[in-house]
Amino acid sequence: MGAYILRRLLLVIPTLLGIMIINFTLIQFVPGGPVETIIARLEGGGDVFESISGGGSELAETGSESEYVGARGLPQDFIEELEREFGFDKPPLERFLNMMWNYVRFDFGESYFRSISVVDLVLEKLPVSLTLGLWTTLLAYLVSIPLGIKKAVRDGSKFDTWTSGVIIVGYAIPGFLFALLLIVLFAGGSYWRIFPLRGLTSDGFEDLSAIGKVLDYLWHITLPITAMMISGFATLTLLTKNSFLDEVRKQYVMTAKAKGLTEKAVLYGHVFRNAMLIVVAGFPAAFIGVFFGGSLIIETLFSLDGLGRLGFEAAVARDYPVVFGTLFAFTLLGLIIGIISDLMYVFIDPRIDFEGRG
């Protein structure tokens, strides 16, 4: 097993490097950049999209950077100073190598526009994403696993049929659309104002008692967590059911029943461990997927300032230290989580031998 882990760890290096090279290369061909963003702000454009659409066309039409700068009304030496400040006076290969050398030492630099280090910025936004990811994953597992087991035991019954209908509907509804429905119904949209619409805590949170803080926190996260877990809940329930059905039809289950064991003893004494292998072992990957998996719309709808909004705003503003720093860190974390998921398989079922497969 040690050799397998070592191979996987060594594979992390070229995988991570390839992802960074592809994204860095793509960025070189995307119109606009930090310098154009600052120019747009200085000239009153105020929006990076202007440099992509209107501003970018000026450069294309004139065919030279000097004429582009003249159209902007800014001196060439000022533009060159901006490029030196951001490091764009160096060739792309040198910039990429410098960036990767810093990242290997976990030096992610400072945001271009926020005057704060990338690490501090991520830590500032982390509580929101941690809340959404952790609670969404835990609740999805706590609801889906018992429901999936019950559906497997009562396969083909009325209970199985109508719950499958509910699950399919839940899977078909986009999370953001369900979030809008919750806002309209329960957050003062058009009907009841039961839950708050903004933030993770209320004003005066620090003055509340311990129990009051817990209740206030749960009160705020109810709607966003419900909106985020709907599709994952559907997928995990069906995965659990199908996994149990596959195990129930195997020979060892028939043998256990023939020995006189009760259905409950067979189900939880023999079937459960084997059926839950794929479900439980996938928990780390499921958590990391929800944690970093594009909760931008949910965060925006409920005014939550998390990593989803951070990534979007950094991409729009061409804040490259934030974009590439978070890409490097989260990709590395995702690759490590993949290895941990494999180890979870072996921990749950020692019969699995990844090294033997190699």
UniProtKB/TrEMBL annotation:
Query: Which residue windows are transmembrane per the record?
Result: 9-30, 128-149, 161-187, 217-240, 277-302, 322-348
Q: Which InterPro entries match?
A: MetI-like, MetI-like_sf
What are the alphabetically sorted keywords of the record? Cell inner membrane, Cell membrane, Membrane, Transmembrane, Transmembrane helix, Transport
> What coarse category fits the chief subcellular location reported for this protein?
membrane
> Per the record's keyword annotation, is Plastid included, yes or no?
no
Keyword set includes NAD: no
The entry's cellular-component GO terms read:
plasma membrane
Q: State where the protein is found.
A: Cell inner membrane; Cell membrane
> Could you tell me which residue ranges the ABC transmembrane type-1 domain spans?
126-345
PANTHER family per the record?
A: INNER MEMBRANE ABC TRANSPORTER (PTHR30465), INNER MEMBRANE ABC TRANSPORTER PERMEASE PROTEIN YEJB (PTHR30465:SF66)
User: What is the protein's name according to its record?
Assistant: Microcin C transport system permease protein
